[in-house]
Amino acid sequence: MYWEIQEVPSVKDFTQTARMGKWKAVRVADSYKTELYDLEKGQKRNP
């Protein structure tokens, strides 16, 4: 599952999220960092 949220009409203000099984990945705005979450353990990992 994949989705994007854009809160204002600016290209820089958005969130991208993907979920696959027990994993959820989140990328905010124009950052190249992706946060990876293990939903079964409630832990955050930075790949």
Topology:
Blueprint: E1 2-6, E2 14-20, E3 23-28, E4 35-38, E5 43-45
Antiparallel strand pairs: 1-2, 2-3, 3-4, 4-5
Radius of gyration: 11 Å
**Helix segment tally:** 0
Largest sheet: 5 strands, antiparallel
Strand arrangement within the widest β-sheet reads 1-2-3-4-5
Shape: elongated
Write down the secondary-structure element order: EEEEE
Q: Strand fraction band?
A: over 45%
| Structural class by secondary-structure content | mainly beta
Distance between the termini: 20 Å
Q: How many β-strands, per DSSP? A: 5
- List the uncertain runs: none
Number of domains: 1
Portion of residues in helices? Answer: under 10%
Overall mean pLDDT stands at 78
Structural summary, described in words:
The protein is mainly beta and 47 residues long. The chain has one domain (2-45). The chain has no helices and five strands. The chain has strands spanning 2-6, 14-20, 23-28, 35-38, 43-45. The chain has a five-stranded antiparallel β-sheet with strand order 1-2-3-4-5, with no helix packed on it. A hairpin with a 6-residue loop joins β3 and β4 (35-38). The radius of gyration is 11 Å and the shape is elongated. The two termini are 20 Å apart. The model has no long low-confidence stretch (mean pLDDT 78).
Task: Summarize this structure briefly.
The protein is mostly beta strands. 0% of the residues lie in helices and 53% in strands. It has strands at 2-6, 14-20, 23-28, 35-38, 43-45.
